[in-house]
């Protein structure tokens, strides 16, 4: 009884173990073998869905760069890739593996050790190539050169295949690689199951022998040599697939050229376990159309798969294929078509047990490897449609492998239960059995392994036909995660974020579908783009519960979500909790910090990122340079510039433009100009940055000339360019140029751009054309706060109080919240026009809006109250200011000085110095003005010298004007005249007017005459100079000279400017000048004035002639 129970128990255990799919079928330990036309691992089918990464050993030889190797394998494994092909050679030259025949570089060998160990860690097999056909990394040429240096009569690279010494060198290298002891895994390479196969050479060619016999003999000899040393691993020749004399009918498929290889004959050689083919239609047929290239690709793949299946009876790997992004007319959709075509051919063969055993795309890169980018590189960490295609192929082949494994297990179970004899070669026959039949027999839905609909869906979305794609999606009876991801991604690309999130919610309710990292990152992107924080936070919680948060894609998407919604602290928290970070992750958090104004923190993160030498890419450098520009960190920016040069990014436009901006913001215009001149390519950002830089430093004419050069180039200006140009025209007061630019903008159709129209309004306002600015403003379809602030500031600065307040009221009615600039403009005009009540109302509004502590508002309030005569209120505002601001301090100092409170002004200035304030040039103008008003000559000269010697400031004409005024008030006119003559800066009429008026007061005729003559040299029609000079002559009794001056004024048409005054009545300011006739109520005003004068005269007469009665 016990034996019977034991037998039953064992049969149940055997049945369960045979039917399970997860352990034996998915195990990646063991050596890969061939069974018929397929690969086998541990008795189960194996598919080589993988990639090329020739750089693994080279990069890993530097221990600092090894994290890139780990990242590459981690990303590859997470996308289901199973095989990596790489070089086990680097002969001679820079950083060689083999210095000379038999002499090896241990650092390079340890780099290869590390790469193999990392592949093992992530369950990926390795194909190692022994040599290169090309000069890169040594190749045939290096072996031939070594032989020539030892006296061998070799002349051609093709002697590699025939010279005995060269072949000995090569055989010894094979032996060295096979016997290498891996310092990490502790295996010899020939005993390491991580290595799937050896490759004799990367793309061997012998054009000197087009018959193929030379290559045939060489492969035969070398295959036998490898097999004599290693019986564990598979071997392939590394052929590209060109047909030869053994199949003349197929030679018509070859691209143009002589190759000296024979796909059929070379792969029939004993010892060659499987065959390879490469495919580069875009390289082989550069001038052909895309349609021709795709037709060739289909024929090429079909022919090789069929020949491997029917003639060679060996598995075939499509060992290299891709699509270059550097070809003219490239689009991501074209690359997707190439990958889909290759993968579909493999899948259609594999699911029927055919010879197509996998494909290896060229090539895999990770972030920070721009130097290795040849146009074919794919970074799995950067989500793209091609990455989705790769991941989908992995899942398709995995599903096939599991189905085949189940077929084998069922067969084994039947044999164990005695349902049939154990047949020799049963596993092979089962592997060659089509999947479709087994799916039907085991009642597995055919939809589980059918991907045609998903492919159609992807094609429709990529072509922009989202409506038809949605119809296909809605009609799908079974949707997997790829279907959902494709349609959600389509809506995100179409900026219909709400629909994308609705679809994600629907997918989440489908019990047959589990969200993966890719679809979750797409949904998070939709949340970020639509600022849907609540949905994004829900997805964050979902990611934590499902362990999807460990994905670098999900983590990066979360950082971007919180960054876009202004929650940068949450972004930092997510970043700090991530175990693995790639370039995208680092760049996203740095960008978020910089855009949030936290530039120093951004540079701290950049510094930490830079410890991993190759992580920063061009975008990272660009955003770090922006942070340096904002902080004026020239030294740090120069350090980044050095790294940019070392990494070869200097010619990348976004980096070069950021470098230029950094130098201009830091005041290094000469370095910036040298950089601009050295740029091999310039875009609109380059030109606009130079125009803006010139305008910023006051060289507006250079800005205009740069714009003209840009217009003569092939680069078209954009909105920002025109905005900068209008600003330059405003600074130059060149209305005509501005109007010409206006016409240019109109012709280009960008007149509705907010930045352009705002800058045009500013230009017209500055040039005194407020009517034109108003027309532009009223014609705007939409307005932002800059629009309102510009028009309000224009009217305010033009002295039009009523209009300025009218626009301000209009802005308030529109619901737009005033900015500090708009309020400051109104306060400025209130002060200039001395309308205290309006200024107080603006003050009250700033309190209501919580802007009373804004530095701009504080200084504007102080200035307004000072100009309106209320120095007490100005002092109160200053005392209540919590912000230590040099502008407010200067405004208060100037207010005290203008009100004759020189002592208070000087005391405030001294107090500010004692607490560590660094005064600016304007502050010194205020304190020098205070000294002049109080007559403190020695103190004035003390501050004048302090400005130059302690603070290293060069006095401007305004400072000299204060000093001249100080000397004139002290009666030291000769010293004042000497100071004017010795001024290093331009002498304007202000200093000469000051001296002239002092000469009038002191009756210094000769000095006054000289001052007047200098003024007239500057402005021949200066009424001030002529009137004052005439007054000097009159006051000293020189009537003849005075008459001559007044006659000169009359002949020149110069009239003395009349004085004027203003009055505020019912919120309306009215200005009056002597003899003025412009007021709309002029007649009434003069009538009242005459009545007032008449009554005044009567009153005077009454005082002296008490008996006289005046008419009523």
UniProtKB/TrEMBL annotation:
<dbReference type="GO" id="GO:0016985">
    <property type="term" value="F:mannan endo-1,4-beta-mannosidase activity"/>
</dbReference>
<feature type="repeat" description="PPR">
    <location>
        <begin position="582"/>
        <end position="616"/>
    </location>
</feature>
<dbReference type="Pfam" id="PF01535">
    <property type="entry name" value="PPR"/>
</dbReference>
<dbReference type="InterPro" id="IPR046848">
    <property type="entry name" value="E_motif"/>
</dbReference>
<protein>
    <recommendedName>
        <fullName>mannan endo-1,4-beta-mannosidase</fullName>
        <ecNumber>3.2.1.78</ecNumber>
    </recommendedName>
</protein>
<dbReference type="InterPro" id="IPR002885">
    <property type="entry name" value="PPR_rpt"/>
</dbReference>
<feature type="repeat" description="PPR">
    <location>
        <begin position="920"/>
        <end position="950"/>
    </location>
</feature>
<feature type="domain" description="Glycoside hydrolase family 5">
    <location>
        <begin position="31"/>
        <end position="363"/>
    </location>
</feature>
<dbReference type="GO" id="GO:0005576">
    <property type="term" value="C:extracellular region"/>
</dbReference>
<feature type="repeat" description="PPR">
    <location>
        <begin position="683"/>
        <end position="717"/>
    </location>
</feature>
<keyword id="KW-0677">Repeat</keyword>
<dbReference type="Pfam" id="PF20431">
    <property type="entry name" value="E_motif"/>
</dbReference>
<dbReference type="GO" id="GO:0000272">
    <property type="term" value="P:polysaccharide catabolic process"/>
</dbReference>
<feature type="repeat" description="PPR">
    <location>
        <begin position="885"/>
        <end position="919"/>
    </location>
</feature>
<dbReference type="InterPro" id="IPR011990">
    <property type="entry name" value="TPR-like_helical_dom_sf"/>
</dbReference>
<dbReference type="Pfam" id="PF13041">
    <property type="entry name" value="PPR_2"/>
</dbReference>
<keyword id="KW-0732">Signal</keyword>
<keyword id="KW-0964">Secreted</keyword>
<dbReference type="GO" id="GO:0003723">
    <property type="term" value="F:RNA binding"/>
</dbReference>
<keyword id="KW-0326">Glycosidase</keyword>
<dbReference type="Pfam" id="PF12854">
    <property type="entry name" value="PPR_1"/>
</dbReference>
<dbReference type="GO" id="GO:0009451">
    <property type="term" value="P:RNA modification"/>
</dbReference>
<dbReference type="InterPro" id="IPR017853">
    <property type="entry name" value="GH"/>
</dbReference>
<dbReference type="InterPro" id="IPR046960">
    <property type="entry name" value="PPR_At4g14850-like_plant"/>
</dbReference>
<feature type="repeat" description="PPR">
    <location>
        <begin position="784"/>
        <end position="818"/>
    </location>
</feature>
<dbReference type="InterPro" id="IPR001547">
    <property type="entry name" value="Glyco_hydro_5"/>
</dbReference>
<comment type="similarity">
    <text>Belongs to the glycosyl hydrolase 5 (cellulase A) family.</text>
</comment>
<feature type="signal peptide">
    <location>
        <begin position="1"/>
        <end position="19"/>
    </location>
</feature>
<dbReference type="Pfam" id="PF26410">
    <property type="entry name" value="GH5_mannosidase"/>
</dbReference>
<keyword id="KW-0378">Hydrolase</keyword>
